[in-house]
Design brief:
75 residues; little secondary structure; Herpes Virus-1; 3-stranded antiparallel sheet; 2 helices; DUF1272 domain-containing protein; DUF1272
Length: 75
C-alpha cells in the first residue's frame, strides 16, 4: 500500500491523499505538479520517473490512513 506522503519534498506544498496533483517515483518520493514539471518528471533523489500518484478516497482513510511525517526540509 502506498504511504501517501502529505507534502512536496521540494517546496512543502500540502498534498492531501484524496486530492490529485501529486507525483511519485518508485521509492515514493513525492512532489507537487509544479515541482515535478520543474524537475522534468525525474526524481532528484533516485533519478527515477515521476508519475501521477493515485488518490485515496476519504472513506478509506480511517482504515488505511495516509502518512503524517512531512519530508520537506526548509533550507
Amino acid at each position: 500500500m502506498l504511504e501517501m506522503r502529505p507534502d512536496c519534498e521540494r517546496c512543502g506544498t500540502d498534498l492531501p491523499a484524496e486530492d490529485p496533483g501529486a507525483f511519485i517515483c518508485s521509492f515514493e518520493c513525492t512532489f507537487c505538479a509544479e515541482c515535478a514539471e520543474a524537475l522534468d518528471d525525474l526524481c532528484p533523489n533516485c533519478k527515477g520517473e515521476l508519475v501521477d500518484r493515485p488518490t485515496r478516497a476519504k472513506q478509506h482513510q480511517a482504515k488505511s490512513p495516509p502518512a503524517t511525517q512531512r519530508r520537506f526540509k526548509a533550507v
